[in-house]
Write a structure and sequence with these properties.
By secondary structure, this protein is α+β, with helices and mostly antiparallel strands. The longest helix is centred in the first third of the chain and has 37 residues. It starts with a helix and ends in an 8-residue tail after the last helix. Keywords: Membrane, Transmembrane, Transmembrane helix.
């Protein structure tokens, strides 16, 4: 039998066989629905089994699950930080893990209110204690100029250069520095010094001033010689003699060093204004570390030094 004869025989066998039964659509639909229900039941059972296993594992690993606090206790410590600013009370099983929020306040400002966390310890946006520009710095410069212009006739305050002491900086200098907060009051120091020369005479002396504004706690509110003898600037009070000079009814403490001090200053006049502002003017017949010879005498007499300390133009805030 060749290939063609085989094909004909197979065709004849198919034709001779009985026809297939007609398709029952209702039975087919019911069979499909039954298969779908079976698949859903199988997946539901698997998911329920996994849930039971998860609950069992959770109950084993997290025995400290609290019922109503909203905090999960692990090893006796709460993982929910407190942000009220108060320390949390310790739990019976161990100390609570808390975060304490402490507002930042300016250094030395006890009356600062909470919420000033963006405020630095330096006032007026400064980066450090010294004001390098603005009204405060301008006041420091003015103090230097006023000091120079207050010399008696025959004396001047030139901008001299050091000889062999370049690392010590300029011989004329002014500075405005923040000292402290006292309540809401800012306490400042205005400080300046200058060389002093006398016409037709050799030598270079030194004149220095310091204005400490009202509110300072430096000497504990004391005044006069009682305070001056406790001072450490510009003449060390413990190593000095203190006399009282009268300037138009104003009492000025006049310190005279018994032995030379490191900065070379020999005499200082201290005057307290009624509001507590302290003005100190000091002098020396030589200018330490300048390379210049000293004058024969200090630039001012003790009475002139005391009068300069009471000058209203140095009463600053």
């Amino acid at each position: 039998m060749n290939e063609q004869e085989l094909k004909n025989a197979l065709r004849d066998a198919v034709v001779a066989s009985s026809p297939p039964p007609a398709m029952d659509t209702r039975r087919a639909l019911e069979a499909g629905r039954a298969a779908a229900r079976k698949r859903r039941a199988t997946w539901g059972g698997a998911v329920a089994g996994l849930a039971v296993v998860g609950i069992a594992v959770g109950a084993t690993l997290l025995p400290g699950l609290s019922g109503g606090s909203g905090s999960v206790q692990v090893g006796g410590q709460s993982e929910r930080p407190s942000t009220t600013g108060q320390s949390a009370r310790p739990s019976p099983s161990g100390p609570a893990l808390t975060t304490t929020v402490t507002p930042k306040v300016p250094s030395g400002q006890p009356n600062a209110q909470p919420g000033a966390s963006s405020k630095t310890q330096w006032p007026d946006g400064q980066q450090d204690r010294t004001a390098t520009s603005g009204p405060r710095a301008d006041k420091g410069t003015k103090v230097l100029n006023d000091l120079s212009s207050s010399l008696p006739p025959g004396f001047s305050a030139p901008d001299k250069q050091r000889v062999g002491f370049d690392d010590y900086g300029a011989m004329r200098r002014a500075q405005a520095s923040f000292e402290e907060y006292v309540g809401q009051t800012q306490v400042w120091t205005y400080w300046a010094y200058t060389p002093v020369v006398k016409a037709d005479a050799e030598g270079v002396g030194r004149l220095e001033i310091r204005v400490l504004t009202k509110g300072s706690t430096e000497l504990g509110g004391a005044t006069g010689c009682a305070a001056a003898l406790r001072a450490t600037y510009p003449v060390h009070g413990a190593n000095s003699r203190c006399d009282t000079a009268d300037v138009g009814g104003k009492q000025v403490a006049l310190l005279t060093a018994n032995t030379p001090v490191q900065n070379g200053l020999e005499q200082a006049a201290l005057f307290w204004h009624e509001d507590g502002t302290l003005v100190t003017v000091a002098q020396a017949k030589g200018f330490a570390n300048s390379g210049h010879p000293a004058m024969a005498q200090p630039p001012l007499t003790p009475q002139q030094l005391a009068a300069l300390a009471t000058d209203p133009k140095f009463h600053l805030d």
